[in-house]
Design a protein that fits this description.
Layout: H1 26-88, H2 94-122, H3 129-146
Helix pairs in contact: 1-2, 1-3
C-alpha cells in the first residue's frame, strides 16, 4: 500500500476538494452552479422590483397630473356648457337651449367612453422589459456554457 502524502487523498483529490490537476469535483461544480444560479435569480428579482417601483412612481405622478388637468378641463367644460346655453337662449327658450347642450355633452361622453374602452382592451399588461431582456441573456449564456 502506498502512503498518502500530507494534504492529499488516495483518490487523486487534495484535501481542499480539488484534484491534483487543479480541477474541481462534479459535486463542487454543481454546488457552485446552484449557488450562482440562486444569486442570479435574486439579482433578477431585485431588478424587476426596482423597475416596477420606478414605473409605479412615474405612473403615479403622471396620473396625478392628468387628474388635475381633468378637473380643470371639467370646470372649463361646465363654463362652456353654460355659455352655450346662454347663447342658444337668445333664439330659443332657455329650457330648449339647456336640453340641446346636455344632449351634445352626453353624445361626446358616449364617444369618449367607447374609444377609451377600446384602448383598454388593446392595452398590453405591464412588463419589466429590462429584466426580461436580462433574463433572456442569462439563459443564453447558461446554454452556451453548458454546451462547452
Amino acid at each position: 500500500m502506498r502512503p498518502v502524502s500530507k494534504g492529499h487523498r488516495s483518490n487523486g483529490q487534495r484535501s481542499d476538494g480539488h484534484h491534483r490537476d487543479g480541477h474541481q469535483s462534479v459535486g463542487e461544480l454543481v454546488g457552485q452552479a446552484t449557488e450562482q444560479l440562486s444569486r442570479l435569480v435574486r439579482q433578477e428579482l431585485a431588478l424587476a422590483k426596482h423597475e416596477f417601483t420606478e414605473k409605479g412612481r412615474r405612473a403615479g405622478r403622471g396620473g396625478g397630473l392628468l387628474g388635475a388637468a381633468g378637473a380643470f378641463a371639467y370646470a372649463g367644460l361646465l363654463a362652456l356648457a353654460g355659455t352655450g346655453v346662454a347663447a342658444l337662449s337668445l333664439t330659443l327658450p332657455v329650457w330648449a337651449a339647456a336640453l340641446i347642450v346636455t344632449a351634445v355633452l352626453f353624445v361626446i361622453a358616449g364617444v369618449l367612453a367607447a374609444v377609451g374602452r377600446g384602448q383598454l382592451r388593446r392595452a398590453a399588461p405591464p412588463t419589466p422589459e429590462e429584466t426580461l431582456g436580462s433574463v433572456r441573456a442569462d439563459v443564453e449564456e447558461i446554454k452556451e456554457r453548458a454546451h462547452r
